Amino acid sequence: MRRKPLSTLLFAVAIFLVFAFQLSRKAFFYGGDLPFPSPSALLTSHSANSVAHYALHEAAFPENLAHWSRHVSSILDPIPTVSSLLLPDWEVLLISSIDAPLSSPDSLRGLLCVFQNNDTSPAKFSGSLEFNSPAMFKCLMPESVRRLRPYFQPLLTNSPEKVFSSPMPELIRWTFFAYEALETEDDVVLFVKGVNHRQGSNRPPTGLKCVFGDGDKAVRTAVTSSVQEVFRCRHPNLTVQEDHHQKFKITLEILDGKGRSVLVPSVAYYSPRRRITGGETEAKSTICACTMVYNVGKFLKEWVMYYSKIGVEKFILYDNGSDDEISAVVKELNKEGYNIEIVFWIWPKTQEAGFSHSVEYSKRSCKWMLFMDVDEFIFSPSWLNSLNPSKEMLKSLLPAEKSRVGMVTIMCNDYGPSDRISNPAEGVTQGYNCRRRIEERHKSIVLLEAVDESLLNVIHHFQLRTEFRSRQMRTEEAVVNHYKYQAWPEFRLKFRRRVSAYVLDWTNSGNPTSKDRAPGLGNSAVEPPEWPRKFCEVRDDRLRLLTQRWFGLQTAEGYRMTWQ
C-alpha cells in the first residue's frame, strides 16, 4: 500500500511527459509558420534597460573555423557562413561569405549541409545577394533534425566526413527577421517581417529604432514610417571610409517605453557609399513593367515580346527563388535587345514588400510602372483593327501630364482552362480563349513619383500621395486578360507557394470564400472533376486573333508564334 502514492506519482509524471512531448511536436511541426515569440513576449521576458539581441550572429571567417569541424582540409572547407534562415517547407537558406561571381562553378557543386545530429542533405547554390555578391545555398532539413530543438545552423561543406560541432548559432525563423535595406538620398528603407502582423495594423514609429552596427558602437536613428513590412528611418552619422564595399549590419529595435527592447534578427546590411556614389543614372524610361516571378521561364518570352511591342521599355523581375531556366531566357532576350533586369528576391511571402522596394529602386530609371504578372496581358478594344503593334499603344492609356492622376487601374477578365489538358506551346494568348463573365480584381499602371512615402500597397495598386488620385478605366477602353486558371499541370504548381503576405495559402482552410481561391477547388492540389471545362462562360478570341496577326509567322515547320 505504501508503494501506491509512488506509483501514482510516477504514472502522473509519465502522462505529463507524453503530453509535453506531443504538445512540443505540434508546436514545432512546420506545416505553416514556425512558432516564434511575439515581440511583446520578448519584451516582457527581459528586465528593464536590457536588450534581447536576437539579431544576426556574425561568423565565421576562415581563420575562425577550427571549431566547426575536426577535419578542416582547406580554407573553403567548411565554407564560412554568415547567417542561416529556416524557410517554409523545411528549407534552410545559408548566406555565405564567399563571393559568388569569383567562385568557380565547380566549387559550388557537390556541397552538403551537416546538421546538429550529423545527418546531411545536399546543398544547392541558390544565387547571390545584391551587395558584395555573397553566395547563397539551400538544403532541406532532414526528418531526423525536425524533431530536435532548438535548430542550429548547419555546417556547409564539400566533404561527407565533416562532423558538426558546437557552438553554432540558432537558425533565424523566416516569420520574424529583417531581410533587406535600400538607401535613398533622404533616408533608409528597411524591410522587416513579423513586426506588423496584420494588414492595416501597424506599430507606431515612435516605438521603433533603426540600429546600424553591433554592440556598444551601434548607432540608432528614428523610424519615420511603419507600414506593412516597410520601415523608413534616418541615415546614421557614420564614419565612411574609402572602401566602396564598407557595410554595416542594420536591424530594427522594438521599444516598450519602459526601458526594455528587442532587436529583430537580421540578414540586412546598410552601405553608406551605395547612397553617395549612386552609379551612373540611365535614361529614364516612360513605362517599365515589374513582376514577381517563380519558375516562369517558359512563359517569359511571350510576355516580354508582347509588352515591349506596345510600349514597355524596361522589365524588372523580382525572382522569388526560381530554379528553372529563367536566367538563361533573360540572357537570351537581353542579347536580342530587350532591357530586362533580375532582382534576386528570395524572401518568402513578401510580394507587397517587393513591389514597395521596386518603387524606390526604380525611380531613377522609370517614370510609370506597370504591375502585371506574366499571365496577364493588357489590351484595348481600340487596337483590334491595328495591323501592327505600336510602342505608343500603352502610352495612349496614360493620363495627361497635368491631370494629377497618379495611378490607372484596369479590370481583369479571368480565363479558364479552355479545354486544355497541357500547357499550350503557342503561348497563353493563343491557348486560352474562354473566360468568366464577371470582371474581378484590377491591375495598375503607377506614376512612381505619386506613390505615398509609406509605400503601402495591396499587391498591384498603391496608396498615393494626397495631391494625386487614381482613375479606373472602363472595359471599353482597356482590359487585362488574366490567364488565371490554366491547364491543370500548370495550375497545380500554384500550390507550391503564395507570395503575398496577406493572402492565405490554398492549403490553409481559413477564409474559404476569399476571391483569392479557385472556386470549388478546396485545400489540396487534386484535379477537380471537369477541370478543363471550368470557368468557361464567355468565348473571347479578341486578343488571340490580334496576337496572331501581330506575332504569327508561316515557317517550314508550320504556323508559329514569334516567341516559340
Short recap of the structure:
This protein has 10 helices and 29 strands.
Describe the overall structure.
The protein starts with a helix and ends with a strand. It contains ten helices and 29 strands. Helix 5 packs parallel to helix 6. The protein has three domains: 93 residues; 86 residues, Immunoglobulin-like (Sandwich); 266 residues, Spore Coat Polysaccharide Biosynthesis Protein SpsA, Chain A, CATH 3.90.550. The strands form five sheets. Strands 1, 9, 10, 11, 12, 13, 14, 15 and 16 form a nine-stranded mixed beta sheet that branches. By secondary structure, it is α+β, with helices and mostly antiparallel strands. About 11% of the residues have low confidence.
Instruction: Estimate nothing, just give the exact number of structural domains.
Output: 3
Name the average pLDDT.
Answer: 83
**Total strands:** 29
CATH topology of the largest domain: Spore Coat Polysaccharide Biosynthesis Protein SpsA, Chain A
Biggest beta-sheet profile: 9 strands, mixed
Based on Cα principal axes, name the global outline.
globular
Number of helices: 10
Under CATH at level 1, the class of the largest domain stands as Alpha Beta
The helix content is: 10-25%
